Amino acid sequence: MNGPSRPKRIDAFLRWIGGVTGRGAQRSFRLRLAIQTILAATTISIGISFVRFYRAAAAGQLPLPQRPPGAEGFLPISGVMGLIDWAYTGRLNTIHPAATILVITAILLSLLLRKSFCSWICPIGFLSELLARAGRAVFGRNWRLWRWLDVLLRGVKYLLMIFFLWSILAMGRLGLAAFIESPYNRVSDLKMGLFFAHLSLTALAILVILAVGSMFVQGFWCRYFCPYGALLGIFSFLSPTRVVRDPARCTDCGLCDQVCMARLPVSRSRKVINAECTGCLDCLAVCPVGDTLTVRTAGRRWKPVQFAVAVFLIFILMYLGARSLGWWNNSITDQEYIERVQQLNTDIYRHTGP
Ligand code: SF4
Ligand code: SF4
Q1: Which domain does 183 fall in, by range?
Q2: Is residue 317 situated within a structural domain?
């Protein structure tokens, strides 16, 4: 139960933000919210620094302010290309190394702690959750698509993932290396920034559909269309970590099913072994009977706090490790950025890869 001394407004806020009530609107849920908020704030700060960097480059101001390498988190395909190129050559590319490190971090987290990258780290996942909660606040509920449509749409993200992987692999070792060094890829972060700064009507319409869809259907983007989530789901399926239910304690109240963002039948499972499980631990947080749901890796039980700390630590240690090894900042000079920024709209920077 929530502590009697906690102001009602905070309780109401927690209920709205989490949709989680009962004994565990508690630690794991609040920790997840805290980590998501910190990382979302970091993402916004990265965005502001990136705009400052672009403006200085466009104005030709030397020296340029520091370009935030974390912006490469929005280049997941570049990150996957970097990973495959690394496997081919044994060397990490120096154009978007942070993108590759972030992809490796997400894969590592998925292998160890299910798709925790999606529910604890990813700012788009967080935004998607907030939109679903806003939908519940406005309409009183979220909706579920018909089962046949749900299954059909869930396949879309896997098709997108296969398309991107196939396109990258079809380039071959030399083609991939040439693309990574190409003028387009060297400024693909800037192109991505400009894409969002000057949205076309079509792109804007797609974003609005995704945002409104996320208010009606929880996880509309993540569940149906995110190819990155599909890739992480495959690694997550191999993870030895899973939510375990003790049927002897379970009262079949069904609360865990109601809060599960992946819509898994937790209350009917002995172990949750499913590529869609994000390791959010909301099912543990909401379960009214202590120790009925636990999260375990190869049988070893995690306290939710330990799980949260592990997710955050792996993410931070990967970042710090990459920085200390020189695998975070890229090798493009300020002078090169200034020269290329002036020509961003020319044919040299037209997209040619996947
Ligand atoms: S089963 Fe539990 S941990 Fe997995 S997605 Fe559902 S609520 Fe989250
Ligand atoms: S596991 Fe917990 S929340 Fe889920 S049905 Fe059983 S008692 Fe209810």
Answers
A1: 17-238+309-349
A2: yes
